[in-house]
Amino acid sequence: MASLDATTQARLLQVGDRIDRAATAAGRDPRAIALVAVSKTFGAERIEEALAAGQRRFGENYLQEALAKIRRLARTEDGRHVEWHFIGPIQSNKTRELAQNFDWIQSLDRLAIAQRLSAQRPPSTPPLNVLLQINISGEPTKHGLAPAQALELARQVLPLPGLRLRGLMAIPEAVTDPFKQRAAFARMRSLFDELQRALDQSGADLDTLSMGMSDDLEAAILEGSTMLRIGTAIFGARTP
Ligand SMILES: *Cc1c(COP(=O)(O)O)cnc(C)c1O
User: Fold this and answer.
1) What is the pLDDT of residue 76?
2) Which distant-in-sequence residues (6+ apart) come within 8 Å of 151 by Cβ?
3) What pLDDT sits at residue 4?
4) pLDDT tens digits for range 29-56
């Protein structure tokens, strides 16, 4: 049996404490920071443990793996909606299933994908929340737009009726130095501010800056993150 402080519930409490402490240090309200539990590679039973502990938002990277869990866990026992975020690379032949099954797409980085998602979003559901993924550290192997391309894509996504543009997402280069972590998040924050200013007149309501994972959530909160994506610190190490 797992020791008590290694249960999903205990780990969620520990993550909640880290968020509270970092928010307090930054003079921010911790309730303004949403927590997405990244459940990739973990089975539905582990998600059920998190649901039982009150967690409602989950992030998945692989469509087929996610669909099995979404079908099984559409609602909690008390009938509440479970919120699903897609955070992995998007293949254009998978957009219909993404548009039909997720509440958020955090990894949008191409207009053609945005157009397909908008057209394929079922009219009976609210528009799909989307974030533009930014390659903030300029790594050649990473997905995402260059920061300089963000405004143009945002302007093209805004009028699409099936989508609701909410903001930006980034996975900075993994570094352990907290000052370097903060520098990348600070660049995201200024890009986000810039976009908000530029699109203010276009009826945009950008309210989400998704940044911060298990090893850098404190730095992300200090620089203004409004949404964390946390896997390892909640579910434990992933076996490849
Ligand atoms: C896996 C993943 C995470 C979670 O990372 P941890 O370090 O396990 O917290 C967050 N965001 C994205 C896009 C991921 O792929």
Assistant:
1) 66
2) 194, 195, 198, 199
3) 58
4) 999 999 999 999 999 999 999 999 999 9
Q: Pick from 127, 75, 74, 73: which is nearest to 99 by CA?
A: 127
Predicted confidence at residue 239, as pLDDT, reads 85
Q: Does the CB atom of residue 164 touch ligand 1 within 6 A?
A: no
Task: Report residues of the chain scoring pLDDT below 50.
Answer: 1
pLDDT value of position 114: 98
| CB 228 near ligand 1, within 6 Å | no
Full residue range of the structural domain in which residue 205 is found:
4-235
What is the CB-side half-sphere exposure of residue 123 using CA atoms within 13 A? 0
pTM as predicted: 0.96
Is 240 contained in some domain?
Answer: no
State the total domains in the chain.
Answer: 1
Q: Alpha-carbon distance 130 to 82, whole Å?
A: 17
Which of 132, 173, 229 gets mutated to test ligand 1 (max ligand atoms within 8 A of its CB)?
229
Q: Tell me, what's the pLDDT at 81?
A: 86
Residues 225, 39, 68, 53, CA torsion sign: negative
Q: Could you tell which of 39, 62, 87 is best to mutate to test the pocket of ligand 1, judged by most ligand atoms within 8 Å of the CB?
A: 87
Cβ contact 40:62 at 8 Å:
yes
Residue 198: which CATH number? 3.20.20.10
